[in-house]
Write a structure and sequence with these properties.
alpha/beta, Rossmann fold, binds magnesium ion, disordered N terminus, binds guanosine-5'-triphosphate, 4-stranded parallel sheet, 449 residues
């Protein structure tokens, strides 16, 4: 646990500068590069730093020992000294060697993009599981970087050519970290099992799952809160955090929402994605994001006031593919149309039948969105009305198991029940009890948008 403190973090109001290298050879346009620097600034701001200057260099390739060239580093060093900078943040991930070399030259704290994101995640994790996931990612980031500290320690130990105390300490540290990684992984596995049990229960209860996914800061949690507030007014106080910062949401929240009277769905709010999300974090958050794998419908929320939203859609879809989401049923929720007009001449919005334009802030387009969600869900669900004779209380009981009983009446023949369930369950039930029950109505929901 002590080891965690070796991950560098940012204190509030620390003075920062950003450093990036634009590689013309790489598959990235100048515009995308500038966009990623802007995003780095937002990340730094989220972590509490104040960015005073951005240093950037065009290169053919990264310098293997210091990422940017020596001349650039001297320029940076001068600026750091003159302006009493606390932290230098590099836009790409530094190799352990690069980081060590830069730290020798620049007289302040040096961190890279990955460390910055890990720092923000550590700040924001709330639940036990979230904290474990971040700790796991941090430890995995640290493991290959222990060598740096070791060199210093063995230098302190002083023995040239001997196995100094520092090296021994590294071995101890490594082992401790590995033990800790194993322990956390086991704990997470346990939590995952628990979630699997809950998920099985849900499937058994035939509750459709709707997951909100998207880039960070696009308005997923705002939409989650709005739907929850509109449809479950009694419990409106229970809101999730919304902030104009990156990664406001880290922990997955699942809520029961009635999209239609008596038709319950589970809505899942998830962590936002970002370009170059550290691999360790993707791996660590995999189990939380598994909810996404099992969702009936994904709401991919997009901030269309952002001129780069198409790149961000691509990033999100790439992460979804990495997570193993294949052939998802997606509704694109084009959000923030209220501020879109500022940019609208610059780019076109691709409007398809699986997209809807909304402003969560002004509550525009929400009814259309709801109708579209219902339409998607009812591709899998159906509603049948059956008559079950009184002497078959076994079938009456079984009907409650397959889905949700929307209404129940009695007449001279038996119970009349309207059952909402996954199509397969509804059809299976009818097939099994064909000879004993009567079908009064067998239909799919039709919703018009
Ligand atoms: N103008 C405008 N702002 C919006 C709209 N919807 C959300 N926002 C703002 O966008 C910011 C981010 O909203 P969140 O709901 O926290 O976004 P998120 O996607 O959950 O973000 P992360 O949890 O960080 O991934 C907040 O400042 C919201 O008030 C909208 O329709 N119009
Ligand atoms: Mg959120």
């Amino acid at each position: 646990m002590i080891l965690i403190s070796t991950i560098q973090s940012i204190a509030t109001e620390e003075k920062a500068i950003l450093v990036g290298a634009y590689l013309s050879q790489r598959h990235q346009t100048q515009e995308q590069y500038e966009q990623s620097l802007q995003e780095l600034e937002q990340l730094a701001d989220t972590a509490g730093a104040r960015v005073l200057q951005v240093f950037t260099q065009n290169r053919d390739g990264y310098d293997s020992s210091t990422l940017v060239g020596k001349g650039k580093l001297e320029e940076i060093t001068l600026y750091v000294e003159e302006n009493e900078i606390d932290v230098v943040i590099f836009n790409s991930e530094l190799s352990p060697k690069q980081k060590r070399n830069i730290e020798k030259i620049v007289p302040c704290k040096v961190i890279d993009r990955t460390e910055l994101i890990l720092d923000i995640f550590a700040l924001r994790a709330r639940t036990h599981e979230g904290k474990l996931q971040v700790e796991l990612a941090q430890l995995q980031y640290l493991l290959p970087r222990l060598t740096g500290k070791g060199t210093e320690m063995s230098r302190l130990g002083g023995g040239i050519g001997t196995r100094g105390p520092g090296e021994t300490k590294i071995e101890v540290d490594r082992r401790k970290i590995r033990d800790q990684v194993t322990k956390i992984s086991k704990d997470l596995e346990q939590i995952k099992k628990q979630r699997q049990i809950e998920r099985n229960l849900r499937i058994k209860n035939n509750v459709p799952v709707i997951a909100l996914v998207g880039y960070t800061n696009v308005g997923k949690s705002s939409l989650f809160n709005l739907l929850y507030k509109q449809l479950n007014p009694a419990s409106a106080k229970d809101e999730v955090l919304v902030e104009n910062k990156l990664f406001a949401t880290l922990d997955t929240t699942v809520r029961l929402i009635e999209l239609e009277p008596k038709i319950s769905t589970l809505m899942v709010d998830t962590v936002g994605f970002i370009q170059d999300l550290p691999h360790n974090l993707v791996a660590a958050f995999r189990s939380t994001l598994e909810e996404v794998l099992y969702a009936d419908v994904l709401l991919h929320v997009v901030d269309v006031s952002d001129p780069h939203h198409n790149d961000k859609i691509e990033t999100v879809e790439k992460v979804l593919t990495d997570l193993g989401v294949t052939d998802p049923r997606i509704i694109y929720v084009y959000n923030k149309i209220d501020i879109r007009s500022n940019y609208s001449e610059d780019y076109e919005l691709v409007v398809t039948e699986n997209s809807v334009q909304v402003s969560v802030l002004h509550q525009n387009g929400i009814d259309q969105l709801r109708a579209l969600i219902l339409q998607y869900i009812f591709q899998d669900y159906s509603q049948n009305t059956l008559s079950i004779p009184y002497h078959r209380s076994d079938i009456y009981a079984a009907a409650h198991e397959i889905g949700k009983v929307l209404s129940k009446q009695e007449d001279e023949h038996g119970w009349i029940m309207a059952i909402f369930a996954r199509k397969s369950a509804n059809e299976g039930f009818i097939k099994k009890h064909m000879n004993s029950i009567e079908i009064l109505e067998r239909e799919n929901h039709e919703f018009t948008v």
